[in-house]
UniProtKB/TrEMBL annotation:
<dbReference type="InterPro" id="IPR024768">
    <property type="entry name" value="Marf1"/>
</dbReference>
<dbReference type="GO" id="GO:0010468">
    <property type="term" value="P:regulation of gene expression"/>
</dbReference>
<dbReference type="GO" id="GO:0005777">
    <property type="term" value="C:peroxisome"/>
</dbReference>
<dbReference type="GO" id="GO:0004540">
    <property type="term" value="F:RNA nuclease activity"/>
</dbReference>
<dbReference type="InterPro" id="IPR021139">
    <property type="entry name" value="NYN"/>
</dbReference>
<feature type="domain" description="NYN">
    <location>
        <begin position="13"/>
        <end position="147"/>
    </location>
</feature>
<protein>
    <recommendedName>
        <fullName>NYN domain-containing protein</fullName>
    </recommendedName>
</protein>
<dbReference type="Pfam" id="PF01936">
    <property type="entry name" value="NYN"/>
</dbReference>
Length: 160
């Protein structure tokens, strides 16, 4: 893990969470997700504000879990069952971040390696700072597309 560069330390961080492909890990409470992400960032000296957007079919998530996530500021973006539409919706969110946002830091939580070339390009060409949380079976190219990486399960189950 790399510590934040000076320009990234105080910058805002947007978390784009593919909740369908990286659900809340066993042993982690929904109401702790936001706090765990904040803690992981602060350990690397990222101290700016954080916003979290979750994308996926919210019909599969119990109402109590959705309520717990929402209560901590996680924005839930329902995407219909078609996995292609889910990737499309996530991609639109990522494009908006890369080209229209003043937020320079991104944590992408996913296992979808179809985004790795974009993540690398935005980091290299748009001066964006990409961090990644992924499951253990993520491809090497996906993991190498980010400056800093975490295993999603370990990030969520670390002690607060």
């Amino acid at each position: 893990m790399e510590m934040a560069e000076a320009k990234a330390e105080e910058a805002a961080t947007w978390v784009c969470w593919d909740i369908e492909n990286c659900p809340i890990p066993n042993g982690c409470k929904a109401e702790e997700i936001s706090q765990k992400i904040s803690l992981a960032l602060s350990k690397l000296n990222y101290l700016g504000p954080i916003s979290i957007s979750a994308y996926g079919n919210m019909n599969h998530i119990p109402p109590s879990v959705k309520k717990a996530l929402s209560s901590t500021g996680v924005v839930l973006n329902h995407v219909h069952v078609n996995s292609r539409s889910s990737s499309s919706r996530i991609f639109r969110g990522l494009l908006d971040w890369a080209y229209n946002s003043d937020t320079s830091n991104l944590i992408f939580i996913s296992r979808d390696d179809s985004f790795c070339s974009y993540l690398s390009k935005w980091q290299r060409d748009r001066n964006k700072n990409v961090l990644l949380a992924h499951p253990p079976n993520a491809s090497d190219s996906f993991v190498s597309s980010a400056k800093t990486t975490w295993l999603w399960n370990s990030l969520c189950t670390s002690l607060i």
